[in-house]
Design goal:
Layout lengths: L3 H8 L1 H7 L4 H22 L5 H15 L6 H4 L10 H7 L1 H9 L3 H24 L6 H26 L1 H4 L2 H22 L1 H6 L7 H5 L14 H27 L6 H21 L14 H14 L3 H19 L1
Helix pairs in contact: 1-2, 1-3, 1-6, 2-15, 3-4, 3-6, 3-7, 3-8, 3-9, 4-8, 8-9, 9-11, 11-14, 11-15, 14-15, 15-16, 15-17
Length: 328
Amino acid sequence: MITLRDLLRTASRTFAIGIEQLPSVLCDAGTVAYLLLRVSDYLEDNEDMPAEKKIALLNLWADILKGNATVEELTDQIQSVDTSNPDALVAQHAEDILARLASLPTEVQEIILHQVIKTTYGMARWVERGPRVNDEADLDDYMFEVAGRVGYLLTHLFAWYSTAIRSKKDKLLPLSREFGLALQTVNVIRGLRKDYERGWVYVPKKFLAAVNLTAHELFQPENRAEAIKVLDMLADKAERHLHAALTCVKSLPPWQHRIRLACIFPLMFAIRTLAISRRNAQVFESEAKITREEVKRIVMDATLWGWSNSWLDSYYQKLNIVKKEQAG
């Protein structure tokens, strides 16, 4: 029988590394929240569904989360889908995920449901809107719905768990939004080609207009010099958000080492991914990924030193040196 921990690791080994660091009930809460969000992701990103069906199922999923529909109304419609897609497998186990959610403390359930429902509605709004990202504000709006709200969710969970974090919640919430935007901007860069192939280009039209390219022309080999300039704009934006994300992590109490690690791992993975992507024309051909060896090194280093803010600063700069060497 597949467990929620199995589903978590199947859906994302890298995010599982961080979530599994969380202490006690936060680990369970983080696992449940992540898997619920992956159900939403599956419905939003599904390449085999027309937009109308995606919107209908996202709204149904929100109704299920609000207790206004049964989970079988969703799972009965996706029992025959290809489960080689990890998100499809997660969605098929929505009933098990909701059962585990119901076993969590009431306040924890409310925190998770509030943000997952809002994210799901935000995804439905963007599916209805279609792939039209006119400017940076549009991109930020999309990224907030799919990632910034996750920052809110985690901050509220951490504040529920820790009195010290609760006292800093007002400072942390805007930084956690930036954290979500940081990860998602890097995700946009990492997935440029894959998104293009499914008909979505998250690059703001203003960025493209600055170099006189269309979304289609961005991916043509003869336009690489102009495309690199667009990539620079995205990378600079990612780095601005990453700086705020670093401030967010440094604001967490050093004695909450496991909570810090759950944030440090994805932050450092994103910094490293940005480093290998900046001024790298290959991102227009295939997905940019860091190696397993790099993941292991980051995990090992952060586990040893992640309690130290001065170490975080220096490690960030170390990764930026790699970036600048590539840029040169």
